Amino acid sequence: MVRHQDLSNHRLHSMIRKGEIRYAGNVRLKIYGTLECSSGKRMKKVNRVFFKDAGAARAEGFRQCRHCLKTSVAKI
Questions:
Q1: Residue 7 is part of a domain; what is its CATH number?
Q2: What is the pTM of this model?
Q3: How far apart are alpha carbons 76 and 69 in whole angstroms?
Q4: Residue 1's pLDDT is what?
Q5: pLDDT grade, residue 72 (50/70/90)?
Q6: pLDDT of 76 higher than 70
Q7: CB under 8 Å to 2, separation ≥6 — which residues?
Q8: Helix, strand, coil percentages, rounded to 5, for the chain
Q9: What is the pLDDT of residues 8-58, one digit of tens each?
Q10: For the chain, what is the domain count?
Q11: Domain ranges, residue 9
């Protein structure tokens, strides 16, 4: 897990290009989703964290976004 506020814009874009970051999460809500998610793009920088894969996000206790990852969320 990498905090957005700890990264420069150059470093962030470099990590995305290299595939080191694939998902973003909200540390307060414990929700993660894709980098293209419209809900995720609205979150504050201080609340945003990044993950390499979905497994890393789930290991930190985050759940999937119901907007961008709705096809893979089981219905209850």
A1: 3.40.10
A2: 0.85
A3: 15
A4: 92
A5: low
A6: no
A7: 15, 21, 49, 50, 51
A8: 40, 20, 40
A9: 999 999 999 999 999 999 999 999 999 999 888 899 999 999 999 999 999
A10: 1
A11: 2-72
Q: Show the tokens assigned to 29.
A: 């809500």
Residue 51, beta-bridge partner list: 23
User: Which amino acid makes up residue 59?
Assistant: A
Query: To 10 degrees, the CA torsion angle through 21, 31, 49, 41?
Result: 80
Distance CA 14, CA 27 (A): 22
Q: How far is CA 3 from CA 27, 46, 51, 74, in A?
A: 9, 8, 9, 28
Sign of CA dihedral 11, 12, 16, 21: positive
Closest residue by Cα to residue 56 from 29, 21, 15: 21
